[in-house]
Design goal:
heterodimer, A: about 325 residues, alpha/beta, six-stranded mixed sheet, two-stranded parallel sheet, 15 helices, about 50% helix, about 10% strand, globular, B: about 140 residues, alpha+beta, Ribulose 1,5 Bisphosphate Carboxylase/Oxygenase, four-stranded antiparallel sheet, two-stranded antiparallel ribbon
């Protein structure tokens, strides 16, 4: 289990205190623009657009949800309450499509709009919720729920909670506690379930109670090769590396090949490939003992660093590819 | 007789909002909260029963409030207190401890005299509540 704290912990008191509602009713601003600017959500959405490649349908849904929450807030200010909106979500998509990343951003957006008090994310999997013997599951699940209060509980690979092949599985117990809290303490926490599309569908089919309590189902599409290349550039940029022209061509080829292979995990595969390319680049540079290295050389990943990958199969005959790729398997 | 143990015990009972504010403060200090109960009000009874495990890594008071609510539902006629433990190296002890639930009627204490050697008298106190066995003392 990992807990990611909210970025702006200092603002907590402010956020819990007034949730932005002015004392004097004549001073209430009903201009969505003003409230948006006030909450800082607009910048968040802008960084979301800038930092995350692709994912157009996901971004649209997030904008819609943010707009709904904003309007709810304005409605509440003039006394048009529709009750707290249900914010539980399900993220479905293939591995490496950015579900966890989006969950972190979502927590921040909800926090800025005052729908969760603390805005931290507690990421768990089945192991953190389900116990190993009778009577172990309930306290374990409750403990996790308590930690997530005031923030977002992100359950990765949520379909593992339900194991139809074993009717005595403790997962069901965990689901029941989860449902109870999702229903009764909606102001206290937001639950996000994530998993692969087909398995989540089956999970929801066998647990209609959960499906009906989740308002927002968001599907994460796979990345196109162009988007993957853009992601690779972004990652390298953040790590202060750059690709030579030939290396970029090699990477395009690599992405094409890797996509058709099994266990392709979108952005995650790209990150792993880049990590291995860095490894080979480092090895190549170290092999050139006795020479001064330039800043440029330290930054540049060459085509041979990428072409040494297993994905290219037997095509590689370059003598420079000294790195033993069997020790660094592609994921 | 209203017993006065722990912080705030000379004040009127804290409301839930006040309790929540105290817990928020404790969490902001990085202290771990726990809930304990007892029906032996003796002032030297420092070891109360734990109600569930101490709660570490909490961010929000809602979890503790839920635990207090469940403790009150289980033991409506017991004393229930909330402890805040500071694990900082060199401190490692309770920073804050206050009662959040007390029985409807608190019968108070009797003065007990014990004849000791040499006609000296030892004094102690004994709660009227503990005349009855544990679990049946109040209500």
């Amino acid at each position: 289990m990992t807990t990611v704290p909210a970025k702006d912990d200092q603002e907590d008191i402010e956020a819990t205190g007034g949730s932005g509602i002015a004392d004097d009713p004549s001073e209430i601003s009903l201009d969505p623009g003003a409230v948006l600017a006030d909450s800082g959500v607009e910048e968040l959405l802008a960084t979301l657009d800038a930092e995350l490649v692709g994912l157009a349908p996901v971004k649209t849904r997030i904008r819609e949800i943010a707009a709904l929450l904003l309007v709810e807030k304005l409605r509440a200010q003039v006394g048009l309450s529709a009750g707290p909106p249900s914010l539980h979500m399900s993220f479905t998509g293939n591995p490496g499509t950015g579900k966890t990343t989006i969950a972190m951003r979502m927590a921040e957006i909800l926090h800025r709009l005052g729908y969760v008090r603390k805005g931290h994310v507690v990421a768990v999997t089945r192991d953190d919720l389900v116990g190993q013997y009778i009577g172990h599951t309930a306290p374990k699940t409750r403990e996790v729920l308590k930690k997530a209060m005031g923030g977002v509980l992100f359950i990765d690979e949520a379909y593992y909670l339900y194991r139809p092949e074993n009717e005595r599985d403790y997962g069901q117990e965990s689901i029941e506690i989860l449902l109870q809290v999702m229903e009764n303490q909606r102001d206290d926490l937001v639950v996000i379930l994530a998993g692969y599309h087909d398995r989540m569908d089956r999970f929801f089919e066998s647990n209609p109670g959960i499906r009906s309590r989740i308002a927002h189902h968001i599907d994460f599409p796979d990345y196109t090769p162009d988007e993957l290349l853009a992601i690779a550039r972004l990652m390298l940029d953040q790590m202060h590396y750059r690709l030579s022209v030939e290396a970029e061509a090699a990477l395009v080829e690599y992405i094409e090949l890797r996509r058709s292979q099994p266990s392709f995990a979108n952005a995650r595969s790209i990150r792993n490939a880049l990590d291995r390319a860095r490894l080979r680049q480092a090895n190549r540079l170290v092999a050139r003992r006795g020479q001064e290295l330039t800043r440029e050389e330290l930054m540049t990943i060459e085509a041979q660093d990428i072409r040494a990958s297993r994905v290219f199969g037997e095509e590689v005959q370059e003598p420079e590819a000294a790195v033993d790729d069997s020790a660094v398997r592609p994921s | 007789m209203r017993i006065t143990q722990g912080t705030f015990s000379f004040l009127p009972d804290l409301t839930d909002d006040q309790i929540r504010a105290q817990i928020e403060y404790s969490l902001a200090q990085g202290w771990a909260l726990s809930v304990e109960y007892t029906d032996d009000p003796h002032p030297r009874n420092t070891y109360w029963e734990m109600f569930g495990m101490p709660m570490f890594d909490l961010r929000d008071a809602a979890g503790v409030m839920a635990e207090i609510a469940s403790a009150r539902a289980t033991f409506p006629d017991h004393y229930i207190k909330v402890n805040a433990f500071d694990s900082t190296h060199g401190v490692e002890s309770l920073r804050l401890s206050f009662i959040v639930n007390r029985p409807e009627r608190e019968p108070g204490f009797a003065l007990v005299r014990e004849e000791a050697a040499g006609r000296s008298i030892r004094y102690t106190v004994r709660s009227y509540a503990v005349d009855r066995p544990e679990g049946e003392r109040y209500g």
